Input
Amino acid sequence: MTPTYYLLLSALLFTIGAVGVLVRRNAIVVFMCVELMLNAVNLSLVTFARINGELDGQIMAFFVMVVAAAEVVVGLAIIMSIFKTRRSASVDDANLLKY
Amino acid sequence: MSLATLASQLGAAASASGPLLAQAGTPVSGPEVIGIGETIAFWILGPLALAGALGMVFARNAVHSALWLVLTMLSLGVVYMVQQAPFLGIVQIIVYTGAIMMLFLFVLMLVGRDSADSVVEVIRGQRLLATLFGVGFAVLVVGAVARSLGTVESAGLGAVNAVQDGNVTGLGNLLFTDYVFPFELTGALLVVATVGALMFVLADKRSAPPRKSQREQADERFRGDKPRVSPLPGPGVFATANSVAVPALLPDGSVAPESLSEIIESTAVRTLDADRASVAGGAGEPGARALTTGSPEDADAEDAEPTGADAAGPEAPAAEDTDRKTGSDTGEEEGRA
Output
């Protein structure tokens, strides 16, 4: 077994997350799919850190986690305020800028 | 210090870190050998993570999606620990599955668990196209990675960890020397995110219409904008008990329907309809005690009371009325049972 298997797992997880973002309608589920994509990238960063024998990849994964935490806070606040005004968490209903 | 100088320092630090680390991790004595234990762990955790991801995409219920995602994140955390990143593994479990996913579940409960996905396709053929895109993307990336990195050998973090006295110490050394400026930037980012989330909450509150004063509300009530002038009657008012299960009585002895709670099962409004109809039918003046019926305990108490007190004079019609009403009430009880 080589570390390549981890990279393949990461690629598959990223693909599933991307398809989920395209397919799902609930804004919160879409958001969870984005989190899955971030996790997949983290896995590949950790694997690359191990392949190269340096810790910089792990540092980068750490920063990705911090940014994801901040992103979740703001994103969920946006979803909550959209839900308050429209009583719906569907991404199809938030089309005020469309016309 | 201007931003440009900071950026140049950052670039210098980043460029300096490469050879420095290569010197630090001196004995790169050949590739790392991946043991049988890690192989087994991978073939257990990898399918679990994939199953969690697929379950998240395909689950109809959003809460189920969140739980599937928790499975994926837990497996990934263990994978990090297996891959010589114990700190990231612990952080993954604490921050992602502990904090972020709980935040997701919290918002799901606030927004409404039943806000299910609509099945209608807004863009025609979007799902098919998305699936095709996914398959194509997976084939491309997996093929590229397998071809270019299929025979790569990992250097392993054993040497670095040995020099740096463990994974956590090594990460801390890097974080507070080479990456100290990005680390401070993440602090600023967290503060901005907190303020942003607060702003969303407070902006909603400020854009709401101003609250009406007490005077305006009273004027509205007497102008007839509201259905009632007075507040709703509390349960049990003017009756012989003040339990929530006993309805309030109006001055003529009839039941005030607004005082009954729909939540409490023992006093559903419709069970009292017959009583109210008989009162409104007006077979004599109804006594106040006649209307406390509604539960078997009450009926027992009223059965006992007229015989013991031996009512006379003005009480007599009331006693007669209670008898009639308790009779009808027990009949209803049997019907319900």
About this structure: Chain A has three helices and no strands. Chain A has one domain: 4-86. The longest helix of chain A spans residues 56-86. Residues 4-86 of chain A form a domain with the Helix Hairpins fold (CATH 1.10.287.3510).
